[in-house]
Amino acid sequence: MGHMSRIWHVRFLPSRVEEAQGVDMMSFGEDASAILWHLQTLSSSSNASTHILQQYHIDTAHAGKHIWSVAISPSGYIATGASDGAIAVRTSTFGNPPSLPLEIGSPLLGDFSGADTFKAYSFIAPSTVIATTTQGKLIVLKLQAAEIPRIWELAASLSGLRGYSVVTSLPDIGTGWAAGLDGKVYMYVHEHRRLTQVFDAGHKVAGLFAHSRQGHRAIALLVTGVGGVDPTLLLLAPAMAENVNLMPVLRRETRLALAQDFIVTSFSIITRQKGHDYAVLGSRNGDIALYDIDVAAGASVIHEHLLPKAHSKEAVTSLHWVRGDEPLASSSGLLHSTGRDGRHAVHSLHSRNGKWSAELVYCLAPPFGPNIEGVTLRPDNHIWIWGFKGKHFVAHDTTAQCEIMTVECGGAHRNWAFQPEAAGGWFVWTGKAQLYQQQQTQLPYVLINPGGHGREIKALAVSPIEKQIIATGAEDTNIKLWTFSSEEHGEFRCMQTLRKHNTGIQHLQWSRDGRYLFSSGGFEGFCIWRVRPDLPGMGAGVVCEGMHPNSGASDLRIMGFEVRERSKKHDQAGGSSEVHMAYSDSTLKRWHYEFPRKKWSLVSQGEYLTACLTHVFAPTTDFIEQWLATAATDGHVALWNGRQADREAGDELQWTHRHKVHQNAILSVATNSLPDATTLVITGGDDNGIGITRLTQSGGMDTLLMPRAHAAAVTGLIILHSSGGRLTFASAGIDQRLKLWRVTVNIEQSGIDGVEIECVKSDFTAVADVSSLTSYRLADGTKGVLVAGVGMDLWGVQA
Amino acid sequence: MGKSSKDKRDAYYRLAKEQGWRARSAFKLLQLDEEFNLFEGVTRVVDLCAAPGSWSQVLSRILIQGQRVGRAAWEDKRYQELLRLRQADLTGDSSAPETDERPEVRPRKDVKIVAIDLQPMSPLEGITCLKADITHPSTIPLLLKALDPDYNSTSSPTEASHPVDLVLSDGAPDVTGLHDLDIYVQSQLLWAALNLALCVLKPGGTFVAKIFRGKDVDLLYAQLKIVFEDVTVAKPRSSRASSVEAFIVCTNFRPPKGFKASLDNPLGAGRKLQTDTGDVKPQRTEYSRKLREDGITELDLGSDLEEEEGEDIRWIAPFLACGDLSAFDADASHKLPEGHVSLDPIQPPTAPPYRRALEERKKMGGAYGKTKLGGLPGG
């Protein structure tokens, strides 16, 4: 209760109702949450009146930290602005009070002794729940907003459901099932209010899972047992209206043989346009198994394909199949799954000649968990996932990257049911032996501006392929992938948020084919992300391919790194990269990474001096004859024996040349090769200066320095154009200025004698604390400049 | 994060504890001194925003105790090096100039140091500590009284009869993380410190203050340049490159003619200087290209660069990194030597903002440093 941080604002709210006794208040904190309070004054005879302050609702519309600004309109709209740059407006707080949890209570069951309580339940239709009780009753509850539900009793007391029962349902066809200790499975069709026994498993039923196969006009019901009993898959005719006597028809009964230690926790059906349908089962141990179910009745089926440890060793809580769009790819699609490992995963499945192949194309942690419990595709093609965060139930829209609904319910360890509806839905849960309900029909807030990182961006990289993806890494420890749409006023849209690092991000780099993103941070954190730029319905598919084994080993920061690709195709045999990492303790290490085996090995290492290295870079693009260079907080550029020619495995890395450019830390670096095989190394310093150093092939360096290029530290540099001896580059600093420079080099002259610089343009950027600059190809084909810091700016550059 | 992890993260934090400084910021002043020789001939100093008092400690050790730290220590090191060179080269020129004689420094006479802070500060011998708000006009008479016992508040309420040589300010707000706000509040503090300095500084005096380099810092530089001949922005090596912090070192105070300092009517708050404005504008520079001793060619594109908005109000102060390059790097991670024992801080916080919370918690039965309420013995 309350904020977990400093409170920046408290505001009285316009009264909701004519209530003399109390007043509503809202508080806004450094923890980025807004809390609605009700302050009630109890009437008392003495002068000392008693007040009760009650927390009504908490919303976390903002990411990261700090709600800085608040505005409240007389009509009761509350707008907040936070560090993430988002502006949230709460619309429903007044006139339409936030729906509070409603206790349903067991007296409703007609049992005033309180001995009977709700046991298992599931949504059978919008706002309609089928439930069992501990006494073995089977009932239907019709939920009503802010009112006690209406109730129908379907069966007085079924002995098999007494004490223990499980329930499942298919709300889209209004059908539910219940089973208990004796193995009898009851089916209820809401349309006809009809309850029938459809099956007798002959053993205790551990779980019931249902799936409707629209294409085949059949329902699949999986009945699982305990203690190594194989589950039974029932195929039922769905529409009983076809039957005169309204009896369900059992079309087929199949046994699915489970692998060892496979305890079924989730179930779905893979429907295909051509070929057999498949059942897909998720296990408590994180495995997912595929079964061909279009086989003869009574047969026992062995799984055809297994995705081992799809959710590490944690339970797979839900499965959802999305068939591929393309008409020819009828036997492929995406299998979504959620697990208690805190992840939402997507496998791309492909079947050819009865052989399945699977590739993990997406696996990320949403901002809640670790109990991720469900996933669905909404009618607007948005993907929602839900689960728990602390004491709250959370529903989240991964497509829009925003929170849909939160309910304080006490946590994950309870029975509950969720029915998503537009802008929210119904959530029913058990707490303190009572049943509670809460409905949301309107989003708790509207984001006028979706915002981004909760803290300042520290690293930036744009993927080098056609559909450019902007990757940003921030002090809030997250990496975000964005697209930019130039329509109207232009908009950055965050597609995915990558949560893995435990500290602020230091550096980001894309592979040349744009399919891998490398990231580094503190605690020696280094990640390789496999990115699929255009995953249907998902924007981009992202999987953390691997973390460096040293991640978390010490508190060293990997200030910068440089990836040299040894092969064109990473995932093929022999695909490998060489990664040079610059550490905060002045060491430089060369690692070798093999993609197919995901194996790291240390090739060589060396020490610089005592200064913290800030960058490691290859000054030239020539792959074979590459120098390796570092920049450090001592203002020097150093060259290392990193050239292919000088290199032998096991050799220690040693710097061979050291050249002073700045008075202290070098914060940004850009390089450009000249036609005479010399290189310009442009550096930005904490000393406000920009240095232009001409590097010869033999390692000679000569510097032209502009000591007062900016009014504060120069933190971003990017070369925009270069041809022959002319180039244009942009610089930015924490003075919030963006400058454009033109450099001409008379190649005939050596050193920096022939180098002339001109400042072409200087402008203020709204981005505070600029950390990085990069170029971005605009829709008209010209190069723009992307500025990142506290927020992001994209500038067009006129030639 | 234990206290030893901070030892690894920051060599200066560890060093401060070893050398008995109340805060690592002592090294910032020492490194500024190495470059600017701040204390030469200085006897009267005002230290603003002094708590916990590490800068006052530096003043105390150099001015009162006559210790050779800061620039003096650096000069000693250089002297030792010269001696060593001379011994190595006995055949060398014996008529070497005598100027490299080891300079004699003793405790100085008539030293007056006044330290001011909003927070209470543990006393330091020989230093007058005032608990006052430097942004409030009532602080001026307090300060003047502390500087001069015969100060008369009626005859010259805001001017020191015996002005001081040096005004220091290491003050910073409790940073929020909102950089715009932090930079704004820091600029306000700097402005308050400057207005106090204008009241007590003698012509030719020096003003050193913490500044956050951010948006519009060039406006501040230009404004400081109006009242000081030389304005340099300096960054000691003990200040992290990743921080926006730097120090403005303003030397040779030269108040414009007819200028009268006043906290009731502070500088810049709608006040006009009755002087020829041409006189106080920062100097403009021409295009120049010169080869420095260290081989770097310095390029100045001329002042046009800063004027493109038609406003002649911005000026970028020259930057100077302070402290030996061989000094510890505040950004680097360091390995702790084998068997390293993490020392306790020299001066625990005297009045931390969270003290009230700790007291409340103690009242409820909780203990300092324990988060669990009740059940545990207090203390």
Automatic annotation (TrEMBL), chain A:
GO biological process, one term: tRNA methylation
Pfam families assigned: WD40
Name of the protein in its database record: Uncharacterized protein
Domain of life: Eukaryota
Taxonomic placement: Eukaryota, Fungi, Dikarya, Ascomycota, Pezizomycotina
Localisation per UniProt entry: Cytoplasm
A GO CC annotation given for this chain: cytoplasm
Start and stop residues of the WD repeats: 450-488
Keywords, sorted A to Z: Cytoplasm, Repeat, tRNA processing, WD repeat
SMART domains: WD40 (SM00320)
Family label: Belongs to the WD repeat WDR6 family.
Automatic annotation (TrEMBL), chain B:
Subcellular locations according to the entry: Cytoplasm
Top-level enzyme category: transferase
Binding site for S-adenosyl-L-methionine: 53, 55, 117, 133, 170
EC number(s) per entry: 2.1.1.205
GO terms for MF: tRNA (guanosine(34)-2'-O)-methyltransferase activity
Protein keywords: Cytoplasm, Methyltransferase, S-adenosyl-L-methionine, Transferase, tRNA processing
Gene3D superfamilies: Vaccinia Virus protein VP39
Catalysed reactions listed for this entry: cytidine(32)/guanosine(34) in tRNA + 2 S-adenosyl-L-methionine = 2'-O-methylcytidine(32)/2'-O-methylguanosine(34) in tRNA + 2 S-adenosyl-L-homocysteine + 2 H(+)
Active site: 210 (proton acceptor)
A GO CC annotation given for this chain: cytoplasm
One Gene Ontology term from the biological process aspect of the record: tRNA nucleoside ribose methylation
A UniProt-annotated Pfam family: FtsJ
Family, similarity comment: Belongs to the class I-like SAM-binding methyltransferase superfamily. RNA methyltransferase RlmE family. TRM7 subfamily.
Function of the protein: Methylates the 2'-O-ribose of nucleotides at positions 32 and 34 of the tRNA anticodon loop of substrate tRNAs.
Full protein name: Putative tRNA (cytidine(32)/guanosine(34)-2'-O)-methyltransferase
Organism (species): Friedmanniomyces simplex
